[in-house]
């Protein structure tokens, strides 16, 4: 599988043909059929690959456990994204890369302040989940952990997370960071924006 | 199954215990376990009931067809909701019912205007889907049709939809409205807000 970089704000015709919503991510599956959106891709990969993975599967067997995993994926990719991550990424990481006509320019400090005020609640909830369940949806690593780690690694890169009073969340994130599948992601860099110094440290 | 009305803006303690995100809908499943969120509920109902329904199932067998259904459900419950429905419902239907402290009061005409400007695109896309596919995700009725019909019935209630130049979408919505499962919904009313005159007509 190869990674293709796309700037959704350019609204390329070929890109909109794959997904008229103009959003990422898109998986080009068998026959280059576009599978659109993170949760849709996760379900597709589980149905076509995950069911064969047994105890390494990122989803559960039981419908109620599956509902809990999906609820948490929606929490981190929906609620955390719209209350926190999207705003900080747009203002701090994307605007410097975007042309003015596409919405680039100076960061909006009001949006940054509002997003920062919301982080604490999301971190506290994650701390509670990690403290009661080991992995966020239960005793095994699932898509819920990957969704949460995606949000937190972006926020941590930007130096927006104060881990000090959230030992269970910190311990959970350290376990995610230590996994062979996650470690290469920690080497990714945003052009022109260095990560916080502890970003790639497994013990932070 | 019984329907329990909940005002999420009241943020009742018992309600937040069921869903700390404070959002609707919630299904109280076997043992009163809360299943949270429209898409999570749909997946749960399909896994526990739908698989037995054969040709009356609202989901597909094939992973790629399932991905297309999920993409469209996310379109209508995510994109249409955040670009159109949420704003018109909040400004026109909920604000008159909400206390000022919870965000009630006079409608914001800028928000209404922005939402109205976006409707046309969603209607046009639906018209294209209905014109090429009969039902929105293919040859059979699926969750994609229910998600779209949920958005459009709310907008139609509010008189926000101009069906005239979108014959295929209109014909599709007429077929949805005619179904025995959908017709009782057309009798629902928002307190203090009458629907547009053609709202419950099967031929409009």
From TrEMBL, chains A, B:
Alphabetical keyword list: Transferase
UniProt cross-references to InterPro entries, sorted A to Z: Glutathione-S-Trfase_C-like (IPR010987), Glutathione-S-Trfase_C_sf (IPR036282), Glutathione_S-Trfase_N (IPR004045), GST_C (IPR004046), Thioredoxin-like_sf (IPR036249)
SUPFAM superfamilies assigned to the protein according to its UniProt record, in alphabetical order: GST C-terminal domain-like, Thioredoxin-like
Molecular-function GO terms, alphabetical: glutathione transferase activity
Domain GST C-terminal: 62-196
Superkingdom, natural source: Bacteria
Top enzyme category: transferase
GST N-terminal domain sequence ranges: 1-53
EC annotation from Swiss-Prot or TrEMBL: 2.5.1.18
Subunit structure: Homodimer.
Name by which UniProt lists this protein: Glutathione S-transferase
